[in-house]
């Protein structure tokens, strides 16, 4: 048959179309969103790891509070800070079975310049085996410290009295008071005295003014009944 060509009826292959502009923009936007999410997560993770040690930092800041408070030590002259014997009132009590001990000691202390108020046996009747006790109130500490130069082996005992009178309670081991020369030599030596908020017990070192450091004071006790009495009884 004339005019007929084979293959004219074959279907033509379709050409693939290019991606539209909207699709490209959508893909780019998706990539940007994914990148932003990843970057944000990374920042959050790093931020937590950086801030974690900053929470514990304030606990180290108050280290300055543990710094030691100041405490200074100076040398003092006992003769300048302690009262003169003429201004010290004392009671002399015999806490032993030795008759006349209080009267003899009171006379020696009077010759040293002390003002004698009472001389008698110890009112509470309690015997003392040691050398002596110097019983005083808070206001009479310096008066007791002065007496300690005359009785280095005595024990300072603080009680609740409100005056400056000191009780000299003589014990079994008491012998004699120190001589004027011995007292003068002891008081001529400067002694350390502490002051300041950092000191364990401010001013406590004034007790070391005596030639021998006095034993530690006992706990506050009630004053001797006759501590404030002004009348003298017969010398025991």
Strand-helix topology:
Blueprint: H1 21-56, E1 72-76, H2 78-81, E2 89-94, H3 101-111, E3 115-121, E4 132-136, H4 141-150, E5 155-159, E6 166-170, H5 180-187, E7 191-195, E8 218-221
Parallel strand pairs: 2-3, 2-6, 4-5, 5-8
Antiparallel strand pairs: 1-7, 4-6
Cα end-to-end separation: 174 Å
What oligomerization state is this entry in? single chain
Give the proportion of residues in helices: 25-40%
Write down the overall geometry: rod-shaped
What is the arithmetic mean of pLDDT?
Answer: 77
What pattern of helices and strands is seen along the backbone? HEHEHEEHEEHEE
In order across it, which strands form the biggest sheet? Answer: 3-2-6-4-5-8
Q: Strand percentage, roughly? A: 15-25%
